[in-house]
Amino acid sequence: MWSIISIEFYVISAIVFGLLGRYIAKQNNRSGAEGFWLGLLFSALSLIIVALLPNKEESVVYSRDKEDKEDKVIWISTFVIILILFFYSGFVREDFK
């Protein structure tokens, strides 16, 4: 049976792989969301795939505001998910005592 610790480990590792995939995708001038979701869903295999994808040429019109908003949304959602897991695991463990 699944324990709470193993579920937390898998969720946190999926988020870490998502953030790594996002970082690698942004280094290749690709969408950060593309790298994040691939990393979140397919873990280490997707990091290899994202790293091997060809670089995209930068577009002439570049909006930094959209990138900043996307960064904030991803970081805030990651923080909220970790916070929810932290509180949930504390409440569940209290129920078993």
Structure explained in plain terms:
By secondary structure, the chain is mainly alpha-helical. The chain has one domain. Helix content is 80%, strand content 0%. It contains three helices and no strands. Helix 1 packs across helix 2 and helix 1 runs antiparallel to helix 3. The radius of gyration is 17 Å and the shape is flat. The model has no long low-confidence stretch (mean pLDDT 78).
Q: Which short descriptors sum up this protein?
A:
about 100 residues, mainly alpha, flat
Question: Mind sketching the topology for me?
Answer:
Blueprint: H1 4-27, H2 32-52, H3 64-96
Could you spell the SSE succession in H and E letters?
HHH
On the 0 to 100 scale, the average pLDDT is 78
Report the biggest beta sheet as strand number plus sense, adding barrel if it closes: none
Q: Percent of residues in beta strands?
A: under 5%
Number of helices: 3
Helix content: over 70%
From the N-terminal CA to the C-terminal CA, the straight-line distance is 18 Å
Radius of gyration: 17 Å
Low-confidence stretches: none
Assembly state: single chain
